[in-house]
Amino acid sequence: MTPLSTTVKRSIELLGLCALAIIIYYAKDILMPLLTAFFLSILLLPVYRVLCKWRFPQTLAIFFSILLAALIVGFVIWFFGMQISKLVKDIPEIQNNLNSHWQNLSGWINAKTAFSSQEQLDLLRKQSDKLLSNAGIYLSGAAVSLTGIFVFVGLLPIYIFLFMFYKNLLLRFTFLWFEEAHHESVEEALRETESIVKSYLIGLMIQISYITILLGGALWIMGIKHALLIGIIFGILNLIPYVGALIGNIIGVLLTLTASQELWHVVAVLVTIAVVQFLDNNILMPRIVGSKVQLNAFASIVGVLIGGSLAGVSGMFLSLPIMAVLKIIFDKSPAFRKWGLLLGDENPGLSPMSNYALRLRNKREREELSWENDRKNTPT
C-alpha cells in the first residue's frame, strides 16, 4: 500500500477537526451532559475508592459519592440564594441609587452634548417599548433554556452513576480499541488524564473558595454592600478562563453602582478585584493546578471562544479540561504530537527560522542537532 503524502495527512487532520466541530455543534445537547458527567465521575473516584475500601457495596459507594457532591452543590446554591435574597430586600434603595446615578449621568450628557434630558427620556422610552414588545420572545427563549438546564441537571447524576458503575467495561473497551503494542502508552495516558482532571477540578473548587473569601472579605471590610455576592459571582465566573473575569468585573461594578451612590466604592471594587486576580494568577493558582494543566494562553482563549460558540456556557466551562485531555492524547501519539505542541506552553526561546533543530519533529533529533551545533560553534 502506498503511504499517504504529508499533504493528504494534513488535509485529513483538518477535515477531522471540522467534522468534530460540526458534531459538537449539532450534538451538544447530548455531548455536554456526558462530558460533564465524565469529568465529575473522575473527580468522585477518590471518594468511591475510599468507600469501597470500607467494604461498601459498589452501588452504595457510587450513591454516597454522588450524594456528597449533591450536598456540596446544594450548600453553594443555598448560600448564593441567601445573598440574592439580601439584594432583593434592598430594591427600594437600589431604585433610589439608580435614579441618582441617572440624574448625574443625564446632567453630564446634557452639559457636554446637545442631547437634552427630554430627548434622553424619549430614547429610553422607545427602547423600553421595544423591549416589552419582544418580551414574549425573550420569555419563551428563557423557558426553553430553563427546560434545557433542568434536563441537563437531571441527567448528570444518572450519567455519573453509569460512568462509575461501568468504569471497568469502558476501560476494557478503550484498551481493545488499540493494538497490544500500544497498551502501555494507553495506560499512561489514562492515568495522566485522571490525575490532571482531578487536580484541575479540585483546584477550581479551591479557587472559588479562596476568591470568594478574599474578595468578599476585603470588600466587606471596606463596607461595600453585597460584598459576598460579588465574591461568589466573580469566583464562579472566573471558572470561564479570561472571559469570565471580564464579565465578573462588569457585574461587580453594576452591583456596586446599584448599592451605593459613592463612586469611590466602584474604584475600590475594581482595585480589589485586580489585586485578588494578581494573587490568583501569579501566586495561588499556579501552585495549586497551574503546573499540571500546561496550556498556553493563546490556545486557552481561542478554545474558550470556540467552546462557547459551539456549545454555549457549558462549552466554555469544559473547554480547558477537554483541551488538557486532548493534549495528553496528542503527546502520546507520534502522528498528532505537533498538535500537542501547539496547545502546550513550551515556547521556544529561538526562532525556527534561524535554528534548524526546532524544525524537526523528533525531540531526540532536535537535541542531537542542537548539541552538534553547540559543539561546532564552541571555539577550540
Descriptors:
380 residues, mainly alpha, single chain
Polypeptide structure, described:
By secondary structure, the protein is mainly α. It has a domain at 27-116 and 138-177. It has 14 helices and no strands. The chain has helices spanning 6-26, 28-53, 58-89, 91-112, 117-133, 135-165, 167-176, 183-221, 227-237, 243-259, 263-290, 297-332, 337-343, 363-377. It is globular and about 75 Å long. Mean pLDDT is 77; it is low at 137-144.
* Mean pLDDT score: 77
DSSP strand (E) fraction?
under 5%
What's the helix-strand series? HHHHHHHHHHHHHH
Q: List low-pLDDT spans.
A: 137-144
Q: What coarse outline follows from CA principal-axis ratios?
A: globular
Q: Care to count the β-strands?
A: 0
Task: Give helix % range.
Answer: over 70%
Report the biggest beta sheet as strand number plus sense, adding barrel if it closes.
none
**CA gyration radius, whole angstroms:** 26 Å
Note the gap between the termini: 50 Å
What class, by secondary structure content? Answer: mainly alpha
Number of helices: 14
In short:
The protein is mainly alpha-helical.
Task: Produce the secondary structure layout.
Elements: H1 6-26, H2 28-53, H3 58-89, H4 91-112, H5 117-133, H6 135-165, H7 167-176, H8 183-221, H9 227-237, H10 243-259, H11 263-290, H12 297-332, H13 337-343, H14 363-377
Helix pairs in contact: 2-3, 2-6, 2-8, 2-12, 3-6, 8-9, 8-11, 8-12, 9-10, 10-11, 12-13
